[in-house]
């Protein structure tokens, strides 16, 4: 029988939202937090089903994905250690129209929905910070929709790479071109061509299952304005989450 992978030790304070809470609020929540492993491909919650908890990632990336009837999908936003997965719970909604799936391996802390509801009634620091994060997340969703409609695959790939690197704090992203194509809602061939152009320009290197970001400053010159719009809004609403 296969043994489960041991949990990587991580402090709740590695989630920047939890770290930004007033000390009294954080101390009240600590006994309620349960550490969980985030494994690529794991579905945290499914579209249309009840959400009984939220997760505060301390590392890794979780993609929020919308599905359509023919089985196709596209990422509408991503969350790392700057925020929380399951904002519908903070808004008092039982379920969501999208799926939350782990994209990059990491660790998180689970908090039951009942505890979240208690904090919302108290008007605690968690309520205030979570609502600001929700506004930033809505901005990311809206800008992703605009980007997918008006910008090239090359620009969209640059946006995705930069947003992902911001959350992982590493130059090496472990993901296949097929998965990126699914997240961007385009054909794999389109991602292959876009990645080839970036590699030929010396901005990235890639092999099967791994992309290395070699020249971020020049990558930022190739991206559309959508990356800056999203980053500015996160910096404005969530100054604790600034990375650059």
Write the layout of secondary structure elements.
Elements: H1 16-19, H2 23-29, E1 34-38, E2 43-45, E3 53-57, E4 61-67, E5 73-79, H3 87-90, E6 99-104, E7 106-112, H4 113-122, H5 125-150, H6 153-168, E8 172-173, H7 177-184, H8 188-200, E9 204-207, E10 210-213, H9 216-222, H10 225-237
Antiparallel strand pairs: 1-7, 2-6, 3-7, 4-5, 4-6, 8-10, 9-10
Helix pairs in contact: 5-10, 6-9, 7-8
Task: Briefly say what this structure is.
The protein has helices spanning 16-19, 23-29, 87-90, 113-122, 125-150, 153-168, 177-184, 188-200, 216-222, 225-237; strands at residues 34-38, 43-45, 53-57, 61-67, 73-79, 99-104, 106-112, 172-173, 204-207, 210-213. It has 244 residues and is an alpha+beta fold.
Written overview of the protein:
It is a single chain. Residues 1-5 have low confidence and may be disordered. Helix 6 packs antiparallel against helix 9 and helix 7 (177-184) packs across helix 8 (188-200). The protein has 2 domains: 12-148, Jelly Rolls; 152-223, Winged helix-like DNA-binding domain superfamily/Winged helix DNA-binding domain (Arc Repressor Mutant, subunit A), CATH 1.10.10. It is built from 10 helices and 10 strands. With 244 residues, it is of the alpha+beta class. The longest helix is centred in the middle third of the chain and has 26 residues, at 125-150. One of its GO terms (molecular function) is DNA binding. Keywords: DNA-binding, Transcription, Transcription regulation. Pfam families: HTH_Crp_2 (PF13545).
């Amino acid at each position: 029988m296969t043994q489960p992978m041991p949990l990587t030790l991580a402090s709740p304070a590695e989630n920047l939202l939890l770290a930004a809470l007033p000390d009294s609020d954080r101390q009240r929540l600590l006994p309620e937090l349960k550490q969980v492993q985030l494994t690529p491909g794991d579905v945290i919650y499914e579209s249309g089903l009840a959400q009984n908890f939220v997760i505060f990632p301390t590392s890794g990336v979780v993609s929020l994905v919308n599905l359509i009837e023919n089985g196709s999908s596209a990422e509408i936003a991503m969350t790392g250690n700057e925020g929380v997965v399951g904002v519908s719970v903070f808004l008092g909604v039982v379920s969501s129209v999208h799926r939350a799936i782990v994209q990059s391996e990491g660790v998180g802390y689970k908090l039951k929905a009942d505890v979240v509801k208690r904090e919302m009634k108290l008007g605690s620091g968690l309520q205030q910070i979570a609502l600001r994060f929700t506004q930033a997340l809505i901005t990311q969703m809206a800008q992703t929709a605009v980007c997918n409609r008006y910008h090239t695959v090359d620009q969209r790939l640059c946006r995705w790479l930069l947003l992902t690197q911001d959350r992982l704090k590493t130059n090496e992203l472990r993901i296949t071109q097929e998965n990126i194509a699914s997240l961007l809602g385009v054909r794999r061939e389109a991602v292959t061509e876009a990645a080839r152009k970036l590699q030929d320009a010396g901005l990235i290197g890639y092999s099967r299952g791994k992309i290395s970001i070699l020249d971020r400053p020049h990558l930022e010159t190739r991206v559309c304005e959508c990356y800056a719009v999203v980053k500015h809004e996160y910096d404005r609403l969530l100054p604790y989450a600034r990375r650059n």
